[in-house]
Design goal:
Blueprint lengths: L8 H15 L3 H16 L2 E8 L5 E7 L4 H6 L1 E3 L3 H9 L3 E3 L23 E10 L2 E11 L6 H48 L8 H14 L5 E4 L6 H11 L7 E5 L5 H9 E2 L11 E2 L1 H4 L4 E5 L6 H13 L1 E2 L8 E2 L3 E6 L3 H6 L5 H7 L2 E4 L10 H15 L5 E2 L3 H7 L5 H15 L4 E2 L1 H15 L6 H9 L24 H11 L4 H7 L4 H10 L4
Parallel strand pairs: 7-14, 7-15, 8-11, 11-14, 16-17
Antiparallel strand pairs: 1-2, 1-6, 2-3, 4-5, 5-6, 9-10, 12-13
The chain binds adenosine-5'-triphosphate (ATP).
Adenosine-5'-triphosphate binds next to helix 7 and helix 15.
GO molecular function, one term: ATP binding
Keywords: ATP-binding, DNA-binding, Nucleotide-binding, Transcription, Transcription regulation
Pfam family, one: Sigma54_activat
C-alpha cells in the first residue's frame, strides 16, 4: 500500500489540501497552509490569493505564503491592472515565462531584488465560483525546472476550485451572520422598546407623543383622565402610568364602571359591612381599599351613576372611604386614573355628570388617538399579533400579498382590539400557510355586520385632515357609528348560562356563543365574572 509520503508531490498537495479545508472554515488559517504546501511540495513559491475589496474597486492580497507583511500590504491592484487584474477580468489563466520580460508583471508586492537571480516565472489562475472569477491565485516558480508548466497549471486550477468553495461557503456564512446580527440587533432594540413601554407598540409620532405625555405624569399622583374610543389602549396606558411611577410596587386595581350594575358598583368600589344588604354575609373591602398604596383605575367613568359620583368626589377630595353599611372612615393612599370613551363635557351639559367631579378628574386629560389616525402603526401591531397568535395556536401562517395594505386602509372602528381579534381569527381560520387578502376581507365584512356600518361623513374626514395641527375637538365616537363591540352588562347572563351549560368549560362556552376563548375571557374579566 502506498503511504502519503510516497505519493507524487501534486497528489500529496491535493490530498492535504482537501484535509485542511475539511478541518476548518477559517480561510485565514487554511489558505496560507495550502499555499505553503504548494511551495514546499511542488516549488510554487510566494503564493497569494487576491480578492476584491468591499468597495469593488480594488483587488488586494488577502492570504499569502512567503511574503513579508509589508510585501503583502503593497499587493493592491486596480480592476484590470497588471497580470492579476487581467486574470480577474477575463477569467483566463495567465503564464508569464519570464517576469523580467513582461511589462504587465508589475513587481508591486515583491521587488525584483528579492527574487532569485535565475529566470523566474509567474502563473496566475482565476478562482471560479459558478464559472465567475471571485479572485486570483498566483505563484512564482523557477522557469528551469523538470516539471512542465501544464502540470503546474492543472494543479493550481484544481486547488483554486477547492479554495473557491471554501471562500464561497465562508462568504455565505459571513452574509448570513451579518444578517442574523442585524436581525438580532433589531429584535433587541424592539424588545428594549417594548419593555420600556410595557408592550405598548407603535412608532407613529401620534403614539410617541401620547407616551411622552403619559411618561411625564407618571412620577406624581396627579389625576389623569384617558380619553379615547373603545380599544385604543386606555387600560394599557393606565397600567403604563402606574408601572412608570413610584407606586409601581403597589397594586393596580381596575373597575369597569359600565360593566357592573349601578346597585353593585358602590359596594364594589367602597366595600361593604356584613348585613349591609341581602347576600352581604361578611365584611368585604372595596377596590379603593385594595388599591391602597397603588392605583385605582376607573374605566368608563362616564357611565357612573350620579349618586355614586358624589361619593367618588369625596374619595378624591379626602382620600377616605366608608363601606356600604358602615359608619367608619377608612383612609386610603391611592392614585386615581380614569378613562372614558364618552364626551364628558357633553354629559355635564346634559346633567348626567357632575361638573365638580369632572374638574377633579380632568386634571390631566390624555387623548389616545384612534388607530385610523395612526395607520403607521398598523403593520407593526399586525405583525406582533400574528406572531403572538401563531405561537398561541401552534400555527405558522404568514401574511399574503395585499394584506398589510388592506389593514392599513381599513378605518378600525374597534381600534387595536378589533385588529387583535381579526388577526386571531385570521390565524385560526387560514386555510393554507398564508393568510390571503380575500380571507381578511371576509372577516372584515363579517365584523362590520356585527359592529354596525362605519359612517365617516365626508365632512368628518375633511375635518380630521384639517385637524392635523392638533387643536381641534377629539373625534367623537358618535362620528364613527356605535363603538365596536363594547362589553354590554346585559351579556353577563348569556355568559353565565353558557358556562353552566358547558359545566365551566370556557372553550366550549366560547364556542356556543361564537366567540374566541380570548374574547370570552375578556368579557368575563370586564364583567367581573371571573
Ligand atoms: N399600543 C399597543 N400595543 C400593543 N397592544 C395594544 C396597544 N394598545 C392596546 N393594545 C391591546 O389592545 C387591546 C385593547 O386595549 P385596552 O383594553 O387597553 O383598550 P381600552 O381603550 O381600555 O378598551 P375599552 O375601552 O374597550 O376597555 C388589549 O388587548 C391591549 O393589550
Amino acid at each position: 500500500m502506498t503511504t502519503d509520503s510516497e505519493l507524487p508531490g501534486e497528489s500529496l498537495v491535493l490530498l492535504e489540501t482537501a484535509q485542511l479545508l475539511g478541518r476548518s472554515l477559517q480561510p485565514e488559517a487554511t489558505v496560507p497552509a495550502v499555499l505553503r504546501l504548494l511551495s514546499e511540495l511542488v516549488g510554487l513559491n510566494r503564493g497569494r490569493v487576491v480578492l476584491p475589496d468591499d468597495d469593488g474597486q480594488h483587488l488586494r492580497i488577502r492570504y499569502s505564503y512567503g511574503l513579508r507583511p509589508h510585501e503583502r500590504d503593497r499587493g493592491v491592484y486596480r480592476l484590470g491592472e497588471g497580470i492579476t487584474g487581467d486574470v480577474m477580468r477575463t477569467g483566463r489563466v495567465c503564464v508569464v515565462q519570464d517576469v523580467d520580460a513582461e511589462p504587465q508583471h508589475l513587481f508591486r508586492a515583491v521587488d525584483r531584488a528579492t527574487l532569485p537571480d535565475e529566470t523566474v516565472s509567474f502563473i496566475a489562475v482565476p478562482i471560479l465560483v459558478d464559472a465567475m472569477p471571485i479572485g486570483v491565485l498566483g505563484c512564482h516558480r523557477l522557469r528551469a525546472r523538470s516539471r512542465g508548466f501544464q502540470a503546474d497549471i492543472q494543479l493550481l486550477r484544481i486547488v483554486a476550485a477547492m479554495l473557491g468553495q471554501t471562500l464561497r461557503i465562508r462568504s455565505l456564512m459571513d452574509q448570513r451572520t451579518a444578517w442574523l446580527e442585524d436581525q438580532n440587533e433589531a429584535l433587541r432594540e424592539a424588545l428594549a422598546r417594548q419593555q420600556q413601554y410595557q408592550g405598548i407598540l407603535g412608532d407613529s409620532p401620534q403614539l410617541r407623543s401620547v407616551l411622552d405625555e403619559a411618561g411625564r405624569v407618571a412620577d406624581n399622583d396627579v389625576t389623569v383622565m384617558l380619553l379615547g374610543e373603545s380599544g385604543t389602549g386606555k387600560e394599557r396606558f393606565a397600567r403604563y402610568i402606574h408601572e412608570q411611577g413610584p407606586r409601581a410596587p403597589g397594586p393596580f386595581i381596575c373597575i369597569n364602571c359600565s360593566a357592573i350594575p349601578a346597585t353593585l358598583l358602590e359596594a364594589e368600589i367602597f366595600g361593604h359591612e356584613r348585613g349591609a344588604f341581602t347576600g352581604a354575609v361578611r365584611n368585604r373591602p372595596g377596590k379603593a381599599e385594595l388599591a391602597d398604596g397603588g392605583t385605582l383605575f376607573l374605566d368608563e367613568i362616564g357611565d357612573m351613576d350620579v349618586d355614586l359620583q358624589a361619593k367618588l368626589l369625596r374619595l378624591i377630595q379626602e382620600r377616605k372611604v366608608q363601606r356600604v353599611g358602615g359608619d367608619r372612615d377608612i383612609s386610603v393612599d391611592i392614585r386615581i386614573i380614569t378613562a372614558t370613551h364618552r364626551n364628558l363635557q357633553e354629559a355635564v351639559n346634559l346633567g348626567q355628570f357632575r361638573l365638580d367631579l369632572f374638574y377633579r378628574l380632568n386634571v390631566v386629560p390624555i387623548r389616545l388617538p384612534p388607530l385610523r389616525e395612526r395607520t403607521g402603526d398598523v403593520v407593526q401591531l399586525a405583525r406582533h399579533f400574528l406572531d403572538d397568535f401563531n405561537a398561541r395556536h401552534h400555527r405558522d401562517v404568514t401574511l399574503g400579498p395585499g394584506v398589510l395594505a388592506r389593514l392599513q386602509s381599513y378605518p378600525w372602528p374597534g381600534n387595536i382590539r378589533q385588529l387583535e381579534n381579526l388577526m386571531e381569527r385570521a390565524v385560526i381560520t387560514a386555510r393554507g400557510t398564508t393568510i390571503t387578502a380575500a380571507e381578511i376581507e371576509h372577516i372584515l365584512n363579517d365584523e362590520s355586520a356585527v359592529s354596525g356600518p362605519v359612517h365617516v361623513p365626508p365632512d368628518a374626514a375633511t375635518a380630521r385632515q384639517q385637524n392635523v395641527g392638533g387643536d381641534a375637538e377629539p373625534a367623537d365616537s358618535a362620528v364613527f357609528g356605535r363603538p365596536y363591540q363594547r362589553v354590554d352588562p346585559a351579556e353577563a347572563d348569556q355568559l353565565r348560562s353558557a358556562l353552566a351549560r358547558s359545566r365551566g368549560n370556557k372553550t366550549r362556552a366560547a364556542q356556543m356563543l361564537g366567540l374566541s376563548v380570548r374574547q370570552f375571557r375578556y368579557r368575563l374579566t370586564k364583567l367581573g365574572l371571573d
